[in-house]
Amino acid sequence: MLSKNENSIVCKMYQYTYSITITHYNAPTLLARMLSSIPEREDIQVIVVDDCSSADNKDALASLKHKNLEIIYSPKNYGAGYERNVGFEYVKGKWLIACDCDDLFAKNAFDILDKYKDSDFDYICYCVKYLDSELKPTGIQLRSDASVRRFLKEKTKDAVKYFKFWNTEPWNKLISVDFLRKNDIRWEPCRVNVDVLFSYQVALKAEKYTAIADELYFFVGDGNSITRKKRSVEREFEFYLAAQKRNGFFKVLGYGSPFGRPDFMYLPFLLKKRGIKETIQFYKLRKNRWTEVLDARKLFVPYLNGVDLNHVLDISEI
To answer: Does domain 4-227 have CATH number 3.90.550.10?
Structure first.
């Protein structure tokens, strides 16, 4: 924990206690709901990055109000990974939470987080509840949330492995801005699985972390979300490439299934999900873009350079 003198220095360094970055694309009504769940406090900065929404949605966006709200408009549609990095450049708080516009915070979220605002953790995870579009509990448990809840129950190397590498969302984490800047941690500027590399870097570089059992964030399964719509064959291939990045990363770490996904698993998966015709289209596309597949398998590996892999799963100080 920081001393009182150190805390006063930190307070002078940062203009806000919390910076909340929110990526947005053509969903101003959902964004308004998210904003309404964030307390209007002097020490909370809210940064919305619009990924080149339509003109009418930009007009609706401009009418939104919130204390310490900053809206940044991108001139082109770059994707959520790129826009998360844009938002981070405007951060002036001690702590970061990177959110999606179609979710929301629990009413007591920041009352709970205030208990940790003077801590020296690199990041703090909290629990998440999955709601439907009518904001009713679904009973579904997200993979990232399951890893956090398991970590809370058991401090084993296996539980730590899942907590660090199965837990790839930014919105269930309160992250030290100083930690991110010191380690030059940013998002992959991509359109698919945009938070994965960011989360892996946090997991690899963090020296001090913890988790709390409070449900502070609501993930909303709304059909309007760009990440939850049916994929074209081309987009399916983009998700396949994202999986190859993870496969190469976990091959070096020596982590097998379920962290890596063997290629043979895709055929039954695609046949069941897309049928014979689109499965054939997918494999033709993969053949034509095989070089991209090989390159993807190497992309995350350099982030392991200089990392003490034995320390990554160290449970002695937890």
So the answer is: yes
